[in-house]
UniProtKB/TrEMBL annotation:
The keyword ATP-binding does not apply. It comes from the Eukaryota. Keywords: Calcium, Metal-binding, Repeat. The keyword Lipid metabolism does not apply. The gene is Efcab1. This is EFCB1 protein. InterPro entries: EF-hand-dom_pair, EF_Hand_1_Ca_BS, EF_hand_dom, Recoverin. GO terms for molecular function: calcium ion binding. Residues 58-93, 94-129 form the EF-hand domain.
Length: 198
């Protein structure tokens, strides 16, 4: 009961009965886990399988990053607190929470910026069909340039951090946030890391 009350307070987007359902699902996933974390949480494999089956998330890079974001203590497994609080943002988070979450997914090395290389890695799996006369990586490089230009075009009227003054090909959170506030479709600009509306 104390855990349930505590989780309901920390996962403010769920009511008590919803938190209880999520805890029951967590217990089911822990029981299914055949790792040495059984009893306290479940591992990356169970997490990835769950996100795949529940939300259709298939990109390995995205799934690994989402796992890292859920696993706040960086111990290699998802606890019940990680599970409920992570799902609160993933499923019902505010725009601000989702922007922070998506930015963290895309910031592969955790340095506070999304670099061209990180954009390239995230977008690499987005291209399903390559034209026969084009190098596969060229299409991804083109997408990175388009994304940077789209995010930078927001600031033509109001110069701000997104404008890449030093041409280092990086986006800060402030850059990302402003671009998303101006065009919500840019929230998942570098790959699908949120469940669709269904």
């Amino acid at each position: 009961k104390l855990l349930l009350d505590s989780l309901t307070r920390s996962a403010k987007h769920f009511n008590k009965s919803e938190v209880e359902c999520l805890v029951n699902l967590f217990d089911t996933l822990v029981a299914r886990a055949s790792s040495h974390y059984a009893g306290v949480g479940f591992d990356r494999t169970v997490f990835r399988d769950t996100l795949y089956s529940a939300f259709g998330m298939t990109d390995d890079v995205v799934l690994d990053r989402v796992f890292s974001i859920f696993d706040k203590s960086n111990n290699g497994y998802i606890t019940v607190v990680d599970w409920v609080e992570g799902l609160a943002v993933l499923l019902r988070g505010t725009l601000e929470e989702k922007m922070k979450y998506c930015f963290a997914v895309y910031d592969l090395n955790g340095d506070g910026y999304i670099s061209r290389e990180e954009m390239f890695q995230m977008l690499k799996n987005s291209l399903l069909i390559q034209p026969a006369d084009e190098e596969p990586d060229e299409g991804v490089k083109d997408l990175v340039e388009i994304a940077l230009k789209k995010m930078a075009s927001t600031y033509l009227l109001v110069p701000f951090l997104l404008q890449d003054y030093d041409h280092d090909g990086k986006l800060s959170f402030a850059d990302f946030e402003q671009a998303v506030r101006d065009e919500k479709l840019l929230l998942e600009a570098f790959g699908p890391c949120l469940p669709d509306i269904k």
